[in-house]
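Hi again,

Forgot to attach this to my earlier email, sorry! This is the prediction with NAP bound. I've pasted everything inline since the attachment limit keeps bouncing my files.
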Amino acid sequence: MDLGLEGKRAIVTGGSRGIGRCCARALAREGTRVCIAARTQDALNQVLGEIDELDGEGFAVAVDLNSQKNCQKVVRETVETFGGVDILVNNVGAAKNADILDLSTKQIDDALRLKSYSYLRMSQLVIPYMKENQWGRIINIAGGAGTSPSRRNMPTGTANITILNMTRALSDAVSSDGILVNTICPGLTNTFRAREQQHARAIRENRDVEELLWDLGRELPAGRMAEPEEIANVVAFLASETCSYMFGSSIYMDGGARRGTP
Ligand SMILES: NC(=O)c1ccc[n+]([C@@H]2O[C@H](COP(=O)([O-])OP(=O)(O)OC[C@H]3O[C@@H](n4cnc5c(N)ncnc54)[C@H](OP(=O)(O)O)[C@@H]3O)[C@@H](O)[C@H]2O)c1
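Structure tokens for the complex follow:
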């Protein structure tokens, strides 16, 4: 299937590792020019090397996406380099969870600032360029915690449910301009973050974090956690010309974990 991604211009936030890295690679493989943004230059350089090996084109901006100024810098440099933006993958996220009885409001603020607010800011910044061409794709990476609250996941859950809300509202605002806004909610995915997230539990239960992760995966209907490439393949579809009739949708890629209907 030709996804029609050749020559498109994309930004992937949190593109140096995990799901973001795989999204950047998947888009580059399809001929999309990619800007990746994250804080650590070495990790960004490594992904740029991988894009190069795929005969793709990319550049990186090393910034902390907590700040509005840095979000502006990413979009400005992308427009200067590629002449516009067609695709935005909002993926950055690093919420620190804690038990709700010990949680500080700062922990919730931090999760919202990096994830929900940067997703909104980045969207607002790229939409004028997408409107110029009456074409655009915004793909948000939220997470199952948004609709599966537990006593230990309120920061990440609050950020994710905000994104689900924003996806619908933003889609209504820009769908008539040919801009499709959709969200993927991954479940447990084999990345650095999954290890970081399970670290406290592994200590609490005196278990090896790798063993804990694989056990959690085995408990899922899928029998395993997701690989980040699997999430990225769906992102590439949502970013494409081929995806032409999905507006404000949220797709759960959680190995069947979610119990709610729909
Ligand atoms: N893995 C899972 O099980 C899972 C499940 C559900 C949802 N998700 C969501 O999927 C998204 C990607 O997660 P992942 O598992 O791929 O995480 P990851 O492996 O930890 O990668 C996170 C990326 O974000 C960047 N980043 C972190 N803080 C940043 C900041 N302040 N400014 C700019 N960049 C920053 C990191 O690079 P630097 O640290 O160098 O900045 C890295 O590139 C997140 O939104 C996460 O909530 C993941």
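The chain has two domains: 9-187+227-252, 191-225. Residues 14-20, 38-40, 43, 64-66, 91-94, 114-115, 141, 143, 186, 188-189, 191-194, 228 surround NAP (CB under 6 Å).

That should be everything now.

G.
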